[in-house]
Amino acid sequence: MNKEIIVKVANELCTDEHKNKPMPSLEELKEIMGLLRAVLFPGYFGSSDLTSASRHFYMGATLDIISNKLKEQLLRGYCFFCEKEDCNNCGHESDEVVEQFMQSLPKIRHLLATDAQSAYQGDPAARAESETIFCYPSIRALINHRVAHELYKLNVPLIPRIISEAAHSETGIDIHPGAEIGEKFFMDHGTGIVIGETTIIGKNVRLYQGVTLGAKSFPLDKDGHPIKGVPRHPIVEDDVIIYAGATILGRINIGKGSTIGGNVWLTDPVPAGSKIQR
């Protein structure tokens, strides 16, 4: 393929299609997530030399940087799908959403603290909660997910999915930003876990590697296209354990306190307190 053809294809895909509007930056979003990790777990990520005296100033300065950078990326996300040539609404919307998102950070921090506690309690190999924050892919993936989920709930286009897929690339854990996940959630080992868009997970749930919470099927419109947003993934109630390689498909309930064995294939609901084996 010669140079002229490459340039033509690149222009068709990247420039003309989006009316020359700047597109979201993967590098900037990666940096934003690094800064968010630093304020959600100060000292663990970002500067490791923080003291009680410097922490307040560091957090304030970092939050200002996050706010400004995130506004720009959200604006680009809105513009990515906006069909208007001249639109001021995208800028106003990104400002408002960033303000709402920043107010959700204490809630995100609380949920992640419970996730770290659950990882420590659920893994006898962990010697401290701090070890799970530093080392466990479960926590790394959940930081991205809990941020992406808040943006998803605020109807931000594209950006939540980019944030989730960044964690997927780093950890091998694939969580759609639409999935609702309660506190004290732990994915032991984690590699190969898939959690679909409309999944609902209760409190104190533990998954092992290779678990799939997926869709069995989805309805089509009159033109044969999938209908978006239809609930089609499992509901996993509180205190459930799902062992490695289990596949659970469709909008079914896994009852509270149940244990699902390794490599089980499930498409039917499970009553509370059940123990399902191969």
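[next item in queue]
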Amino acid sequence: MPKEIVAETCPPPECNLTEKEITQLVEELEDYYQLFEPAFQRTEQVEKGKVYLNGMLSDLSRKVTEQIALRHGENVRSLQHFIGQSPWQTEPALKIHQQQVVETLGEEDGVAIVDESGMVKQGEHSVGVSWQYCGSVGKVANSQVGVYLGYASRKGYSILDGQLFLPEKWFEEDHAEKRQACGVPEDLSFQTKPEIALQLLKNALKRGELPFKWVAADELYGDSSNFRDGIAKLGKWYYVEVSCSTQVWIERPEVHLPEWLGHGRHPTRLRLRDPDHKAVRVDELAKQIPQDSWIRAKIRKAAKVPSSVMSVSGES
């Protein structure tokens, strides 16, 4: 019998913590931050990092560096330099964070989740800003977009890593001054979102232990055969959305490399041995699966996008 799984959004819980519990929470947060002190080279970097963290957790309406510095009595330019120009690496902090995720959430059949998130911007000078699809508003907007890698298991979930997506036009000559002003590395080249996502996965595996079996992603990534093949080469399974027009074979077809006819280029692409053995659209294949083999689940894609229904077949 088919099952229907409904995921509803709930209002945030009321804050019913006691003063003692809040004090304990602050102490635990202090202990947690100390885990990351080895990621910094100097003591003043540790202190400025703590100021910035406190600012991000505060009730400031605009959590920008200037407002954070003023709230905590810090020199504005000093904190801005720490965030924007100070030569400290993020990789050591990411490695510590990933280790904590493994220790607290790690399970052998965990799931690595790839997705993107966008932030609407008003101006044109922020790095990577462009008119592009922004999931937070559910439409094309002037925005910055980042690709993120998350981790989920029965024990909980967390973000592992992320990278800003730079649209291809940002690498054109007319954007050279903007790249220099924003500090874009000169050796950086254009990468598609699936390419960024695959690199984030590889980076996570290079850092050390990360137990997971599956990689989940939406259609943007699932439609990339290079992304899917890259996951398979990592020895992982993928659970991704694909376009309904995707062509598939029910059985693996026999292929061969055509013989060279003695003129022109040598053949390099494999051809079907039986030209009549055609692929089928994935939506046509889905119609052949019995109705009682599906599980229907209501999902919510973004905060401002209506809930939708996803059907998952139990067939392999």
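[queue empty]
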